[in-house]
Amino acid sequence: MLSGSIVALITPMHSDGSVDFASLKRLVEFHLANKTSGLVIMGTTAESATLTFDEQWQVLNAVLEQVAGRIPVIAGNGSNSTAEAIAKTQKFSELPVAGFLTVTPYYNKPTQKGMLAHFQAVAAATDKPVWLYNVPGRTGVDLQAETVAELAKVPNIVGIKEATGSFERLEQLKALCPADFVLLSGDDATCCDFILQGGKGVISVTSNIAPALMAQMCAQALAKEQVAAHQTDQALQALHRDLFVESNPIPAKWALLQMGLIADDMARLPLTRLEPIYHSVIEQALKQAQITIQE
C-alpha cells in the first residue's frame, strides 16, 4: 500500500528548456537517501502539461532504471482528453511503474457523470493500480466524494490524492469508501492533520525540498504521535506556504538551485523563473526548515 511521504518530483531543465537528466539523477538519489516513500513522475509539479510524450517516456524510463524497484514509481497519466489519457496509460503500462496518478480532466469542466466515465475508461486500459487526483484549484472541477465512492468499486482504482485541504471531504471519503481505499493528501499545509485523522500519506511539493523532514513527519503522524508530528510539521509550514508564492514548481525549482541539486531553475513557458522579490521569502522558509543553501 502506498503511504508516507511521496514526492511530486519536479522535472529539471537546462537553460534551453531541454530535460536535464544529470540533475534528475541527483534528485532521485537525494530522495532515495532521505527516506522518501515513493516518486510521482509526470504529475503537475513535473510540468507534464508542457512536456512532449517522448520526453515523458524518457524521464520515466530514466527514473525507473535508476530506482530499480527500491521504492514505488507512480506515473502521471492524466489529460483533459479521455482518449489521450487512455493512450498514455496503455503505453506507460509497458514500463515497470507501480501504478498511475490520474488527474480530473481540466478545462473541459466535465460533470460528475463525465468524470465517472473518464476514470472508468482510463482504469480499464491497465491492470496496474490507479490513484485518482482531485485538485479543483488547478482543474476547475471537484470530484465529489459520492463519485469517488462509486469509482472505488473499480478493482484497480485503489485510492485518491485529495488536494482540497478540506477535512469535511476527508470525513466524507472515510465514510463512503472501503477501509482499504488509500486516502492521500495533496495539500502540504494540512497533510499532517490529514494523516492524523486517517489519511495514509501525502503526495507532496514540499518533499522536493525537505524529504527527510517530510518523511519524519509522515512517520510520526502515521504512528499517531500527534505532538511530535506537529512539532516536525511546524518547521515545514513556511515551505508549505511559500513554495506557492508563484505557480508551482517555480519556487521549488529556485530552492533546489540554491541547494545545489539542479543546475538551472528553468521552467517551460508559460512558466518563468522566480521573481527576485520572492528570493528572500524562499530563503527564509529554507532557513526555518534548517536547509543549507549554497553561497
From TrEMBL:
One of its GO terms (molecular function) is 4-hydroxy-tetrahydrodipicolinate synthase activity. Pyruvate binds at residues 45, 203. The record marks 44, 107 as: Part of a proton relay during catalysis. It is found in: Cytoplasm. InterPro entries: Aldolase_TIM, DapA, DapA-like, Schiff_base-form_aldolases_AS. It catalyses: L-aspartate 4-semialdehyde + pyruvate = (2S,4S)-4-hydroxy-2,3,4,5-tetrahydrodipicolinate + H2O + H(+). Its EC number is 4.3.3.7. The active site is at residues 133, 161. Keywords: Amino-acid biosynthesis, Cytoplasm, Diaminopimelate biosynthesis, Lyase, Lysine biosynthesis, Schiff base. Pathway: Amino-acid biosynthesis; L-lysine biosynthesis via DAP pathway; (S)-tetrahydrodipicolinate from L-aspartate: step 3/4. PROSITE patterns: DHDPS_2. Catalyzes the condensation of (S)-aspartate-beta-semialdehyde [(S)-ASA] and pyruvate to 4-hydroxy-tetrahydrodipicolinate (HTPA). Belongs to the DapA family. NCBIfam families: dapA. Homotetramer; dimer of dimers. This is 4-hydroxy-tetrahydrodipicolinate synthase. It comes from Rheinheimera marina. The lineage of its organism: Bacteria, Pseudomonadati, Pseudomonadota, Gammaproteobacteria, Chromatiales.
